[in-house]
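Hi all, posting the design record for the shared folder.

TITLE: backbone redesign
STEP: 1 of 1
STRUCTURE INPUT:
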């Protein structure tokens, strides 16, 4: 049995400190009591602002507890004797076949974390949404969608785990470089298949029936110089009141998707502003830029993971006999979860930059700031949240600038 080295202890301590610090910092900043933003009161009624702030507080508290519970479960598997025995037992179910050992541990660890997270997922995905009138789903319908999502996620993750451990077995020291390439390629493939394979599993996808909307989108796409293969409507109105639109897919799978609720609630000029914003992401290649950043961060995380697996050999209570031991899946899950939390501010900063540029592009393409502001107001009403969050919360976690910042930028582009 080996004792963990000083660099190994320092690495785990640093990762845990950063990840837990971010989670708690965001939670306390969100829960802080503060007066309503004076500028926001010019565009929204006070009761709506308070409702959105309360919605955010409740969601942040539940999400923070879910993250802490998930990290605690993984840490217990990796660093508590009882958890290590569970992993060894799962590994032994593979009966000496490496791919079966990896499958047992990967699926077992995924089920354990899914069970730990289930109460929080149910609250966030159903109870909380229903309390604010955002979902019409029954509990059983929500559970069916949740189980389908878990099944798809576990299945795709298992394929990656098997590929990863094949690389570890082939090259225990340099596997991370090949794994970074495989992971990046897989995420790019999923981005291409998302609109044609995954979205139809969860939503009814149908062509947009309004010829005026179709013509408007085609005209916008032509002016933007973007080729769009299909314009589709997502049937969410029977289950949700949220509004959304997106451009998804790559090359021949690139499509414009509109929630049917968006078509019902927005005026033609507001819809044009929203779609111009979404088309900007295709014009600027934002999906590719986000993928490149994610691939770079993932490669760095995998390089760290390779070092951790080497350093953890023989360390109690897990006692990895070698880097390719299947029980190491739990270690990698914990490590990558911590790295993902630590990388969130970097990814959020790039995303906000893209969204700012998309808003500017929408203004240039439509020359209608009033419609863009009105679309922001309707989106804020349908998708409750804090329209003027604390700056720290926005910087560390928001993928979009706050609604009030977006309104201000639309009305005063030079500010």
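Okay, here is what came back for every position:
SEQUENCE:
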């Amino acid at each position: 049995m080996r004792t963990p080295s000083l660099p190994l202890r320092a690495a785990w301590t640093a990762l845990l400190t950063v990840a837990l610090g971010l989670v708690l910092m965001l939670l306390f900043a969100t829960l802080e009591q503060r007066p309503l933003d004076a500028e926001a009161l010019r565009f929204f009624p006070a009761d709506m602002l308070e409702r959105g702030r309360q919605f955010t507080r409740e969601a942040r508290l539940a999400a923070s507890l879910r993250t802490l519970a998930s990290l605690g479960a993984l840490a217990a598997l990796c660093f508590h004797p009882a958890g290590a025995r569970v992993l060894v037992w799962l590994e032994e179910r593979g009966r000496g076949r490496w791919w079966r050992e990896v499958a047992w541990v990967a699926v077992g660890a995924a089920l354990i974390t899914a069970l730990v997270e289930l109460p929080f997922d149910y609250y966030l995905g159903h109870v909380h949404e229903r309390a604010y009138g955002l979902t019409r789903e029954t509990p059983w319908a929500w559970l069916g969608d949740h189980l389908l999502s878990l099944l798809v996620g576990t299945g795709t993750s298992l394929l990656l785990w098997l590929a990863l451990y094949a690389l570890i077995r082939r090259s225990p020291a340099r596997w991370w470089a090949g794994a970074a390439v495989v992971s990046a390629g897989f995420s790019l493939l999923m981005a291409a298949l998302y609109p044609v394979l995954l979205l139809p599993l969860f939503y009814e996808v149908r062509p947009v029936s309004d010829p005026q909307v179709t013509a408007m989108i085609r005209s916008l796409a032509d002016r933007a110089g973007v080729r769009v293969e299909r314009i589709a409507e997502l049937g969410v109105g029977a289950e949700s009141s949220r509004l959304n639109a997106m451009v998804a897919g790559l090359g021949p799978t690139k499509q414009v998707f509109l929630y049917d609720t968006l078509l019902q609630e927005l005026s033609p000029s507001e819809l044009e502003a929203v779609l111009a914003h979404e088309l900007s992401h295709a014009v600027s290649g934002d999906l590719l830029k986000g993928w490149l950043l994610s691939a770079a961060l993932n490669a760095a995380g995998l390089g760290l993971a390779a070092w951790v697996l080497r350093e953890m050999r023989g360390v109690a209570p897990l006692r990895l006999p070698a880097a390719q031991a299947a029980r190491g899946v739990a270690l990698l899950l914990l490590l990558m979860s911590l790295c993902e939390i630590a990388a969130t501010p970097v990814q959020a900063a790039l995303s906000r930059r893209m969204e700012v540029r998309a808003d500017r592009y929408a203004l240039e393409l439509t020359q209608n700031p009033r419609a863009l502001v009105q679309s922001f107001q309707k989106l804020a009403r349908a998708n409750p949240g804090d329209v003027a969050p604390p700056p720290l919360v926005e910087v560390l976690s928001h993928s979009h600038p706050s609604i009030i910042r977006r309104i201000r930028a639309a009305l005063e582009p030079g500010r």
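COMMENT: The chain has two domains: 6-202+284-411, 204-283.
Let me know if anyone wants the other runs.
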